[in-house]
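Field reference: sequence -> structure
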Amino acid sequence: MSTCGRSLRNKNQPFRRSVADSRELPRDLHRLRKCLRSHCAVSSSSSSSSSFFYYYFTLNSRKEHPFRYRFSAKMTKPSSLCAPLLLFLVWRAGEVAEACSCSANHPQQAYCNSDVVLRAKVAGWQEIVTGNDIYGNPIKRIQYDIKQMKMYKGPDREIDAIFTGPSSAVCGVKLEINDKKEYLITGKLESDGTMHVTLCDFIQTWESLTNAQKKGMDSRYEMGCECKIVHCASVPCSISDPAECLWTDWLMENSVKGPQARHYTCIKRNDSSCAWYRGAAAPKKEFLDIEDP
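Structure field:
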């Protein structure tokens, strides 16, 4: 196997699909470009006067984090490795171009925007076929059989299975079958009453949640569902309405799992304004009665 093939195979995993992991892509393509340069005299700039291979794609449709990568290869040194390597680049880049892309959500937004929020253990899974697409290909989904521990939001019945896509490329979720591990799962109800989850939903192990997040799922987040949380990805950013809370974790911590996500709830106060509240204890009357100047 060529050095190029080994360098990618040694990672032993596909390109990561989520928005947060899209920063890994330039590193992978740079590694492949170095390999191609050694075998095919690859250049990073195109030339109209010579034949070249050109591939351009856009990853991550979120406007605040656009990412583009341009790559061209000039066939100046004949090698039997060039064509396979270039085809491999097209395949991998095309795979990423179809990646699952999610906007950042505070846990409170995940709760308020979901049809179902529950805590459960995963008992088993199976791949099922739910029909065929317009080309006659089978439409596959993963069914996770679950043992519901508590329903925080949703229908007045127990849910014993959740459904997701067959791979992360279509936002499919992977859950671990473990009788000792509980998950907090948010998702949508489909027209047939089944629960569907994706990588864009808030799905975390119960033990990884803070006390404030657990209390939020139980009752606190519901107090702020009429509020709007504004995600601040870059400066300047501000709120335009008293019923908004500015979420600055990404700006301050370079993470959407910062202090505001882990410990704060955006709560509606008695004057209809909204403000961040920290803690698992219920907010006092003084906090709810405060009026903004």
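Note: The helical segments are 3-9, 24-40, 82-97, 107-113, 211-220, 249-253, 259-263, 285-289.
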